[in-house]
Amino acid sequence: MKNYNVNRIEKNILKINGLGDNPFWKQAEILTDFTSPWSDLEPGKMEFRSLWDTENIYFSYKVFDNNIHTDRQDDSVDSIGESDRVEIFFRTDENLNPYYCLEIDPTPRIMDFIASPKKRFDFDWNWPENTLTVKSSIKSDYYIVEIAISIQSLKNFNLIKDNIIEAGIFRAKYIKQENKLFEPTWITWVNPKTETPNFHIASSFGKLILG
User: Fold this and answer.
1) Could you tell me the CA-to-CA distances from 119 to 97, 115, 175 in Å, in that order?
2) What are the per-10-residue average pLDDT scores of the chain (211 residues)?
3) What is the rounded CA–CA span in Å between residue 75 and residue 103?
4) Most buried pick, 2, 126, 132, 190, via CB within 10 A?
């Protein structure tokens, strides 16, 4: 499994604002090791950062893209699911029973759901109130999504074990085809070695190590 080291900071000094400009982000390791195993297209660069304190874990995605696609029909799961977005999944163990999914578009609309094997998704489930904060911004050639999740909520779901969180880090990029329809390119940190795109599988997860 791939590892990413999450550096620790003092409690309550990082306030996310969706701009990615808080100076404390400089203390985070920058992860750029993302691929699109099922596409010949070279995915645009993405920088992922994470930090933690005793209260929260923080995530920042900086996606370099000057042609962002969002489906704005409504705020439904279907509409978010047809939009460019970043994603992070958390699992209790390799059985994926259950695992927890966050998919966030650049605006930022949140698709949060609990899942179990064979892509059984419960979209009526939501991350507990007051334990998740998301902010974002869109610039001319990139967008940023920042996330703060309470450590206690992760512990309540048994997602932190020996200071390790097993997570998948993903991105969806929608590209307009010749037929005028938008089709997704799927981008991942860990190559799950599947024939067709599939993030909902044990081999797509790595380890976030809380240092």
Assistant:
1) 11, 7, 24
2) 97 96 97 95 91 98 96 92 97 97 98 96 96 98 98 98 98 92 95 97 98 95
3) 13
4) 190
Tally Cβ neighbours within 10 Å of residue 43. 18
Maximum separation of any 2 CA atoms in the chain, in Å: 52
Closest CA to 54 of 13, 18, 92: 13
> Which pLDDT score is estimated for 44?
86
99 Cβ contact partners less than 8 Å away, ≥ 6 residues apart: 89, 90, 91, 92, 114, 115, 116
How many other C-beta atoms are found inside a 10 Å radius of the C-beta of residue 183?
Answer: 11
SS3 for 193?
Answer: coil
How far is 161 from 145, CA to CA, in rounded Å? 26
